[in-house]
Design brief:
The protein contains one helix and eight strands. The protein is an alpha+beta fold. It has a domain of about 70 residues: OB fold (Dihydrolipoamide Acetyltransferase, E2P) (Beta Barrel), CATH 2.40.50.
């Protein structure tokens, strides 16, 4: 007989503590100087204007402003280029100056769009009118049929 009780050994039940990495402030959101924008391992995102990188590759804001993400090509020593995302903090004054120009462009597009849509509905009512005529004709035929039936009954009675 065995002198020890049989028991299974468990090797795979340990779990590491969560690191809570990722983007903390997204594009277009306001940020205060010193706020963490991204926590990352290695340099997946690159630092841009008004940002700096901590020892653990965390990207922080240097100044107050609005976060912006941009794509940029980086060249490595082997000559190969890589597309990376650059994180920038745009001061609130600059973003306010750029915003009205974009809104004006959107307003022009909105004005042009209804003009095109106005041309299309002109054809649609004509089709609806044709359908309305067909609908009017169909009940007229049905209404005419019952009128003939009483006349035939009267003829049969005579």
């Amino acid at each position: 007989m065995a002198h020890k009780k049989a028991a299974g050994s468990v090797k795979n039940l340990k779990d590491s503590q969560p690191k809570y990495r990722g983007v903390k402030v997204f594009g277009g959101q306001p940020v205060v100087a010193g706020n963490i924008i991204i926590r990352q391992k290695w340099s997946k995102y690159e630092c841009g204007k008004n940002t700096y990188e901590a020892a653990d590759f965390t990207i922080l804001a240097k100044t107050d402003g609005i976060v912006a993400f941009k794509k940029k090509n980086f060249k490595k020593f082997n000559g190969r280029t890589y597309l990376k995302t650059v994180v920038e903090v745009v001061p609130a004054e600059e973003s306010a100056k750029k915003a009205p120009a974009k809104k004006a462009e959107k307003a022009e597009k909105v004005v042009k769009a209804p003009a095109k849509k106005a041309a299309a509905p002109k054809k649609a009512p004509a089709k609806k009118a044709e359908k309305a005529e067909k609908v009017v004709k169909a009940p007229a035929k049905k209404a005419a049929a019952p009128k003939k039936a009483p006349a035939k009954k009267a003829e049969k009675a005579e």
